[in-house]
Amino acid sequence: MDAPRVTELIEYEVRIAARPETVFAYFTDPARMVEWMGTEATLDPRPGGVCRIDVTGDAVMIGEFVEVETPHRLVLSWGWERAWFETPRRSTVVEVSFTPDGEDTILRLSHGRLPAVAVDFHRNGWEHFLERLAEVASGADPGPDPWRRSERDLR
Predict the structure, then answer these.
(1) CA 136 → CA 2, 34, 71, 147, distances in Å?
(2) CATH number at 7-139
(3) pLDDT tens across 55-108, in order?
């Protein structure tokens, strides 16, 4: 009998200088998604709809939207097309809430069901990308993503 898989949860809270409707769109509109995360995105923000993001140009996340409460909350499954860090397609859960606070949004993100080996990898990723999201959603230019692979790198 196999030992039970140990899983962990990582959580973040970020204040973003934009309304929830604006921030929410950066998770549901493919053009806005790639302004802060990814080189390409296919997003169908409805329960059962696909969520596929080529995060760096050679690392593709695949999942699906589980719950969509515009503009308050999203839940989606998350994993990798190539099962990196014991995290295959749709094997983990990301929950994001968007709470208004004056003209700002308090974004809370939790990423659960992560195998222990995947925690540091995903923690570093979310820290990197949520910082970029806070900048772009508030109207700032986060600049080129240093994690993005160029076409030249992929040849």
Answers:
(1) 45, 11, 18, 16
(2) 3.30.530.20
(3) 998 899 999 999 999 999 999 999 998 867 778 788 899 999 999 999 999 999
